[in-house]
Amino acid sequence: MHFSSLMDFIIELKREGDVLEIDREIDPYLEISEISNRFIKHQGPALMFKHVKGSKFPVVQNLFASKKRISLALGGASPDEIGNRIREILHQKAPESFTDKVLMFSQLLEAAKFSPKTVDKAPSQEVVLMGDKVNLNDLPIITCWPQDGGPYFTLPQVITEDPETGIRNVGMYRMQKFDATSTGMHWQQHKHGTSHFEKYRKRGEKMPVCVALGGPPALTYVATAPLPENIDEYLFAGFLQKKPVRLIKSITTPLKVPADADFILEGYVDPNEPFHMEGPFGDHTGFYSLENPYPVFHVTAITHKKDAIFPSTLVGIPPMEDYWFGYATERIFLPLTQMIMPEIQDYHMPPEGVFHNLIFVSIHKQYPGHAYKVMQGLWGLGLMMLAKVIVVVDNDVNVQNPSETWWAALNHIDPERDILFTRGPLDDLDHASRLPSFGSKMGIDGTRKTPEEGFTRRWPDKITMSDEVIKKVSTYFPNLLKKIEVSHDKS
Ligand SMILES: Cc1cc2nc3c(=O)[nH]c(=O)nc-3n(C[C@H](O)[C@H](O)[C@H](O)COP(=O)(O)O)c2cc1C
């Protein structure tokens, strides 16, 4: 299923009874947040705030915040099914190196005719505001939490181009509104927006930047996806929705922007301009990220659909909507991770680990020290480099179940022997490390230990009932025992 616009997606959610429309006027200053938070913590529907104080545009939140909704947003298939589509592509050939693999993935997406298509008339340019008509104060930008430094765009697709290769990047980086025509640009140092910015800085040139809001829902997801630098996110969106993304040339910059977005902010970041303090911001860690200097984005034009809808999200103490973007990424990217480390059976980033704090991994252990090889492999793989704690367990543990994973790992460790401390880059949002973005990491080897690893005592079996008794007793009280069989399967 493909949604050609955000409105199409909302109509489908309405059909499914999965969106609540709120008619009374709501303040974008904290009130939208409080309502969204209550609904998300009770696995509620998507929310459409039809009357937002101070703006003529409606706001939507929690659009992607369930397995059903994120799957629908990505074209109807579950993230696991999308992962399997990728797995099939990857199994078509046997590329040699990792670079070959990334290249092949990119080529296959292209060959499959999902490349973006350029059009010359676009809904996202139905209304064009330039010069003194540019006024960010007209938009219903939410202030999320009481100590926030101001209102923030929280679901932006930030579009930039590598000035050397011309390859596009689309990343989701929050933007604090500074005044009517400028915002912060919170691309953190490990992100592709920053690497483009550094190239412009070296060249001493102004950097064109455009920001899309809304549009077909797959476009919002891909901005959050940790794709390798040389894969265009809008090509990937085409692959997900099985339809090319329609682009149009922006009016005041050389960049192309989504033709079906709800809003486009066009503008630039000038590397010669001093950074501006950005923050604080009630972040997805559940704590405020404090003020820090970031580049300034100057808006030269705002274009939008006539009936544009303003999308935003609330992050805070997990679980929040962003968990579902992370969930999609976890499932979609598993086959790519397994291509590099086939011994990985599964991995999981539970919501309380806020992605970068905790990864559970189950492996087919084959040799002494294998768990350490996997930890270090993950710490060398893209944004997994930011993982603070990695727990490795054997393949009979269901890592999707955090209590089962801790149960197995805690039983299997001798802490002094099985915990590895190392150092490396940390997420910019980590507030506990001694230095910003650099600190220690912990790997826990929760696998069964072998004699080759120096373990000479007997290792006990996990308790399970014999199949014969399970089957026999199941026939006595089929309904009651069905439940017990399920929990038996999970152990
Ligand atoms: C709701 C939401 C907000 C985010 N905000 C930021 C942010 O402000 N800065 C940042 O660097 N990454 C942020 N991220 C994470 C990036 O979007 C993510 O790392 C993405 O892969 C970045 O794209 P890139 O790899 O092309 O740079 C956010 C993710 C989500 C889901």
- What is the number of E strands? 25
Helix tally equals: 14
CATH architecture title of the largest domain:
Roll
Separation, N- and C-terminal Cα atoms: 36 Å
Note poorly predicted spans. 485-491
Structural class of the helices, strands and pairings? alpha+beta
Number of domains: 2
Percentage of residues in helical conformation: 25-40%
Cα Rg? 24 Å
How big a fraction of the residues is strand?
A: 15-25%
CATH fold assignment of the largest domain: Pnp Oxidase, Chain A
CATH superfamily of the largest domain: Electron Transport, Fmn-binding Protein, Chain A
- Cα shape: globular
List ligands, each type once: flavin mononucleotide
Mean pLDDT: 94
CATH class of the largest domain reads Mainly Beta
What can you tell me about this protein's structure?
There is one protein chain. It is globular, with a radius of gyration of 24 Å. The protein has 491 residues and is of the alpha+beta class. The chain is built from 14 helices and 25 strands. Helix 7 packs across helix 8. It folds into two domains: 306 residues, Electron Transport, Fmn-binding Protein, Chain A (Pnp Oxidase, Chain A, Roll); 113 residues, UbiD C-terminal domain-like, CATH 3.40.1670. The site of flavin mononucleotide (FMN) has 20 residues, from strand 8, helix 6 and helix 9.
